[in-house]
Write a structure and sequence with these properties.
Layout lengths: L2 E4 L8 H14 L5 E7 L8 E5 L5 E4 L10 E3 L5 H7 L4 E9 L11 E8 L1
Parallel strand pairs: 1-2
Antiparallel strand pairs: 2-7, 3-4, 4-5, 6-7
Length: 120
C-alpha cells in the first residue's frame, strides 16, 4: 500500500483500537507510503450535549440542535497538534494543520478538524 486515506473516520475508534489500527497500517504499507488523515478537534459539536470522556477515550455526543445526528455518536476528540502528532506515530510527520468546514448556520458549533500527513 502506497497511500492511506482516512478522512473523518478514525475518530470513531476507541483509543486502543485506534493505536492498533495505526500500527497495522504502518506495518502493511510500503516504505515511503503516505498517510492522509483527519481527526475531529475538541471544539467539534460544541453546541451538542457531550458526555464525559469514557475510559476508552470516546465521548458520547447527542442532542444536536440541528437534529442531523439522530441518537448518539461516540467520538474521540483531539485536543491539539501535539496530541495529533503523538497519535500517528510511528509515521514521520510531513504536515499537520487544521481546517474548519463552511458552517453557514452554525447549528452544531465548530466543525474544526485536524489534518495529519505522514510518511513511512
Amino acid at each position: 500500500m502506497d497511500l492511506i486515506l482516512a478522512n473523518q473516520s478514525l475518530y470513531y475508534l476507541p483509543f486502543e483500537s485506534f493505536k492498533q489500527t495505526i500500527q497495522e497500517l504502518y506495518d502493511i504499507s510500503n516504505e515511503g507510503a503516505i498517510i492522509f488523515a483527519t481527526m475531529m478537534s475538541d471544539k467539534g459539536y460544541s453546541m451538542c450535549e457531550r458526555g464525559e470522556v469514557m475510559e476508552n477515550g470516546l465521548c458520547e455526543v447527542k442532542g444536536c440542535p440541528s437534529g442531523r445526528l439522530s441518537g448518539s455518536s461516540f467520538i474521540r476528540f483531539t485536543k491539539d497538534i501535539e496530541e495529533l502528532k503523538e497519535d500517528f506515530k510511528p509515521f514521520k510527520p510531513l504536515f499537520w494543520g487544521d481546517y474548519e468546514l463552511i458552517n453557514l448556520y452554525n447549528f452544531e458549533g465548530s466543525v474544526q478538524h485536524f489534518i495529519y500527513i505522514g510518511q513511512k
